[in-house]
């Protein structure tokens, strides 16, 4: 059996595998797609100490760094079941069952898409999902935020301080965000809030040049010219396969303590699949290190 089995090969899982392997113990890592969300990213400018890099390049470096160590790397494998017996068992979709004394879950998350024409086409060409990452690309420009929940309104407030103008589009007749966020939003001079509207299309040529929406009460179709669209309708953790084996919150995020431990002894978690409040590369890597050290601590005590 492994001492530490990492499930997920993004920044969190890579960091966990390296930290664990440096303890001289048996480490394995299973990843459906090595690199994770980083593979979908173009420019990265907030990975501290690296002024600018690109997703594919960072993903390749993650894998290269993991392979410097004696880590059993199992790529293109998807975990489908976890069970705690004497050891922790992880069953893969190909039927193999991996056994380990400890497991670190780092299966990440995915942004929910609006699914309108133009969204996929203009991804990274004006369509963005992370205001912390891509906000500064739109300095002095006009942008839209799709989604009036807490994350949408937080994004709109954040972006209003950077860009020229923000248009918020909410499908429902009312914003769902907390009142304090709404008050703050409505106090800003460069924000327009459109409620009860359905996004129809993100338009553009080589990059985004506007958004078309339908007023749901009148049926009227409107178009706004702008250069960026932030989709903020939810980040979904890749944790469904865990069922009730570990505690998850109502968003489906794995609940961890300050040592990265879940409620199931020997099972740890890190990165975007957990209840960590902010989802970023550098934060995922930090939590991967924490989970690995937490797992090592557990191993020397049990
Ligand atoms: P992920 O990167 O999501 O990795 C999850 C891993 O788990 C993958 O290897 C996946 O294949 C694997 N996996 C999932 N389910 C299973 C399963 N059942 N079995 C086996 N493997 C599984 N952050 C920044 O800091 N700066 C940026 O500029 C930035 N830009 C971004 C741009 C985009 C378009 C996106 C989508 C995200 C961006 N982020 C950025 C966020 C950042 O990418 C994430 O916070 C980070 O990748 C999370 O790392 P993670 O390891 O927790 O999860």
Automatic annotation (TrEMBL):
Please tell me whether the keyword Oxidoreductase is annotated for this protein: yes
In what residue span(s) does the FAD/NAD(P)-binding domain sit? 2-281
Coiled-coil stretches are 59-93
**Per its Swiss-Prot or TrEMBL entry, what cofactor is needed?**
FAD
Q: Which UniProt keywords apply?
A: Coiled coil, Disulfide bond, FAD, Flavoprotein, NAD, Oxidoreductase, Redox-active center
* Family statement: Belongs to the class-II pyridine nucleotide-disulfide oxidoreductase family.
Quaternary structure, from the entry: Homodimer.
Name this polypeptide is given? Alkyl hydroperoxide reductase subunit F
Question: Covered residues of the complete protein?
Answer: 208 to 509 of 509
